[in-house]
Amino acid sequence: MLSFPFATSRKEKFDIINEIKERLLIAHPNNILAIGGYGSIGLKNDLPYSDIELHVITRDEVSINSHEFIYDKFKIEVSVKQKKEFFKQAIKVDDSWAVKAGVFINILPIYDPQNIFEEIRKLPLSVSDSAIRETMREFMIWEPYETIAKIRNNFMIRNYNYIPLGAKDLTWQTAKLIGLANRKYYSTRARTLEESIKIDSKPNGYVELAKCVMSGELSNIEYVYQLCESLLNGLNEWYEELGIVYRIQELPSFK
Q1: Which helix (H) or strand (E) element contains residue 87?
Q2: How far is CA 215 from the centre of its chain?
Q3: Distance CA 153, CA 185 (A)
Q4: What is the rounded distance in angstroms from the CA atom of residue 112 to the CA atom of residue 109?
Q5: 3-class secondary structure, 64
Q6: Has residue 2 got a pLDDT over 90?
Q7: Alpha-carbon torsion 100, 104, 107, 109, what sign?
Q8: SS3 state of residue 53
Q9: Looking at residue 3, what is its pLDDT?
Q10: CATH 1.20.120.330 domain extents, the chain
Q11: Average pLDDT, rounded, for the chain
Q12: What is 129-242's CATH number?
């Protein structure tokens, strides 16, 4: 087994974080407004092999390059955004909202004299119901509907190797919809499915398929296929309950 990625202690991580902070402030003394840790650093649950992810917020119209690199024992990402752009991203709603919102909410300030991160963490949860519903409508067309069609095609032509992959895709896509519908963001990608099955409003059939995916028990192709079909039924019933219509009755005018 290779010796890297390396295990590092929390103290070692924060020693390098503070060194990066000092270097940034020396290199750009008047242009950096805030520096904060996100991901496992922001959640304060980093483990020995966790990487280091840092937000760097600059004044508007100031351009500083982002960096992602491996140095010594550390994998480090320094994500640089101008203040206006960072605020814009924090309030954006898309299909990955439930996965990405925590990046803006769970931030550990490293340098933040203006309390910018306190302002930022309120934004993701202030998105409108209409924006969430429209995102769910669009995403259902883009991904789950198309995924179940692929699952049916491949099951029909007996390309059974695709069925477990399609089941994983459908489960992940549904988890994102569940987070959106409930305004719940997931703590980490690694715990998304585990957390999603505990959320109140979700489609029938989801828990059963998600448990199969989490356990890796996907070898019974017929059973997994039927779980996917059950989830499709559940998704459509759930959307009807939520009042979200994603299928149209007439062709667009294309004007």
Answers
A1: helix 83-90
A2: 21
A3: 33
A4: 6
A5: coil
A6: no
A7: positive
A8: strand
A9: 85
A10: 129-242
A11: 97
A12: 1.20.120.330
| Per-residue pLDDT band at 132 (split at 50, 70, 90) | very high
Placement of tokens 């789950």 in the chain: 144
Residue 233 · residue 205 · CB < 8 Å: yes
Task: Retrieve residue 164's tokens.
Answer: 């477990």
Split at pLDDT 50, 70, 90, the class of 1 is confident
Q: How far apart are CA 176 and CA 168, in angstroms?
A: 13
Q: How far apart are CA 210 and CA 192, in angstroms?
A: 10
Query: With contact defined as beta carbons under 8 Å apart, do 217 and 175 qualify?
Result: no
CA–CA gap between residue 137 and residue 73 (Å, rounded):
44
Q: Which two tokens stand for residue 224?
A: 């997994």
Q: 10-126 is classed in which CATH architecture?
A: 2-Layer Sandwich (3.30)
d(CA 114, CA 68): 26
> Is there a contact between 65 and 54 (Cβ–Cβ < 8 Å)?
no
Helix (H, G, I), strand (E, B), or coil: what is residue 31?
Answer: coil
CB 132 within 8 A of CB 177: no
Residue reference for tokens 């805030």 = 34
Residues 148 and 224: beta-carbon distance below 8 Å? no
pLDDT tens column, 183-194: 999 999 999 999
Residue count of the chain = 255
Query: Parallel, antiparallel, or unpaired: how do β-strands 74-82 and 52-58 relate?
Result: parallel
Lowest mean pLDDT, pick from 1-5, 155-159, 242-246: 1-5
What sign for the dihedral angle of Cα 120, 123, 124, 125?
Answer: positive
Gap between the Cα atoms of 94 and 135, Å rounded: 6
Every domain of the chain with CATH number 3.30.460.10 lies at 10-126
